[in-house]
Amino acid sequence: MTDAAPATTASGIDLAELDPGIRPQDDLFRHVNGRWIARTEIPSDKARYGSFAVLAENAEEAVRDIITGTPTPAPGLVEGGAEAEPDKVAALYASFMDVERVDALGAAPIQSDLARALAVSSVEDVVMLTGELEHRGLGGFFGMFVDNDPGDPARYIVFVMQGGIGLPDESYYREEQFAEVREQYRAHIARMLGLVGLGGAEELAELAYGLERRIAASHWDKVASRDIQKLYNLRDFAGLQELTPKLDWRAYLGTMGAPEDAFAEVVAAQPEALTGLSELLVEGELEAWRAWLVWSIVRSSAALLSQEISRANFDFYGTALTGAPEQRDRWRRGVSFVEGAMGEAVGRIYVERHFDERAKASMDALVGHLIEAYRDSIRGLEWMGPETRRRALDKLDRFTPKIGYPAKWRDYGALAVDAADLVGNSERIAAFEFARELAKIGRPIDRDEWFMTPQTVNAYYNPGFNEIVFPAAILQPPFFDASWDAAVNFGAIGAVIGHEIGHGFDDQGSRYDGDGRLTDWWTEEDRAAFERLTGALIGQYNALSPEGAEGQKVNGELTIGENIGDLSGLEIAWKAYLRSLDGAEPPVIDGLTGAERFFLAWAQAWQQKSRPEETVRLLTIDPHSPNEFRCNQIVRNLAAFHAAYETRPGDALWLEPEERVSIW
């Protein structure tokens, strides 16, 4: 294992890392990262490793220091507002790290729930218990969350999504390539039920798995499930009940602790999947529902039970699915537990200690250049007509950048925790979040809310808010350094900024206008031209198979949104870099031209190594392409790359000019 962060020179590019044996014209990704890949062993607790993972580890260590800086409170509920947050954070962490107590309790914390699950004697009982478990974070029929309404972005609404399964995706229950995983999963369910002391574990496992398979049979696939126009199915309460006639929603919401008026209107995202699950709520399936309830309880709580149970759960969800041979250190899992519960309480201190406000000013300037570069590009698009262009520019004008940390921190006053009650803490956290989310219904949209913590190494675009968000933790090498040469910052964080703006104009983001409303603001001719370009990009990616995938190829339709983001992000970042020079010639630094530094920085940011199992899993469910193609396939489409490296036919990254795709 080695550190992926570059020991950079004055430019920000680590020249010693470049592999002269691999030409950038043939493989830019390995020209920059090949030496690192060759000498780096993926840590035993990870399925993949690279630039993002290194920064995430550093952030975890910083958060651990914050958490452990407060003495552990005495056992008993810790309550109170902002003044009590450090004690709550310390108590949460202590409850997770008390291995002696966790092992002594074993599966005792869930025994009463298991007994109740095995005792259900009617479909009504199944519905009532599932609602209660949903409230406590121990399972549920569906995925549910609150967001602003795509059709009316000034109001919040509940989204009801397909759910009820324990494998990553419906394809795992039907595709031949996952036959071995299915057998491992069935054996895993039986093993876990045995570990929590249930008799007849094999039979229960078969029943639970069989019901999951029947639930999954009506699920939408991953491609359909990212199509916002298909997902946006507005239903009033009566319409929701009509969609799922065998599920009594009033009873379900009652035991869930959800006010019925919060469900007065919902987005029923995948109607067939909701109906399909409802159709299984019949007396003939009662035995299977008992087993499903038991498995839901065990699966949802396994990570919080004894080390033996937790390790057994990791054996499947970690090793079998992703290839990682070992669990993460317990302290790292403890940090994740705390961050999942009180991430912004920790984030407030993280920002005070680790975020340089000068980075915010530099990012503001970078974002400004990217916005202007997009504006120049949109004005010059040959395939777009004037009416659509006007609306696109209007949307660009309405983008809201958020950098570093929230303007307003989350209030955790209603959350009570206990240093001696790990499972209870988990259930109280779930109930707190459930109430916090549903309380949004009927209130004005909170545009100050963040959906990532400042210590998260990532970024996002939110189409309903038309905002791009860059947490503090990503604003460091290899993505950004205020002291670096502009070409490197534009090639790394600049392309990330461009990527997130690009999501506002990808195949799904382009369905939203500048106010975050789902509406068709395109002319038919312009949408058709756009889809011809995206279709060509889909075709490019459908032909690619990453190392370790045993010939399995990228799903161009699943990844098209992220591929558009990558392509537009890098292309616009290059234009923004040139724009920032204000007509001056880019300097040569460390023997590298501005263009070379720009593209090397792009490749440096995508440094990653992955286990074969994880590569296959991500090809199935991840809307992002493998990192080697996020680097290489994108640059093949950029004339600036071919000019910088003087590529020609015969080079592996050569792409005939007429086959290159340029969208935004």
TrEMBL record:
<comment type="similarity">
    <text>Belongs to the peptidase M13 family.</text>
</comment>
<dbReference type="InterPro" id="IPR000718">
    <property type="entry name" value="Peptidase_M13"/>
</dbReference>
<keyword id="KW-0378">Hydrolase</keyword>
<dbReference type="InterPro" id="IPR008753">
    <property type="entry name" value="Peptidase_M13_N"/>
</dbReference>
<dbReference type="InterPro" id="IPR024079">
    <property type="entry name" value="MetalloPept_cat_dom_sf"/>
</dbReference>
<feature type="domain" description="Peptidase M13 C-terminal">
    <location>
        <begin position="458"/>
        <end position="661"/>
    </location>
</feature>
<keyword id="KW-0479">Metal-binding</keyword>
<feature type="domain" description="Peptidase M13 N-terminal">
    <location>
        <begin position="24"/>
        <end position="406"/>
    </location>
</feature>
<dbReference type="Pfam" id="PF05649">
    <property type="entry name" value="Peptidase_M13_N"/>
</dbReference>
<dbReference type="InterPro" id="IPR042089">
    <property type="entry name" value="Peptidase_M13_dom_2"/>
</dbReference>
<protein>
    <submittedName>
        <fullName>Peptidase M13</fullName>
    </submittedName>
</protein>
<keyword id="KW-0862">Zinc</keyword>
<dbReference type="Pfam" id="PF01431">
    <property type="entry name" value="Peptidase_M13"/>
</dbReference>
<keyword id="KW-0482">Metalloprotease</keyword>
<dbReference type="InterPro" id="IPR018497">
    <property type="entry name" value="Peptidase_M13_C"/>
</dbReference>
<keyword id="KW-0645">Protease</keyword>
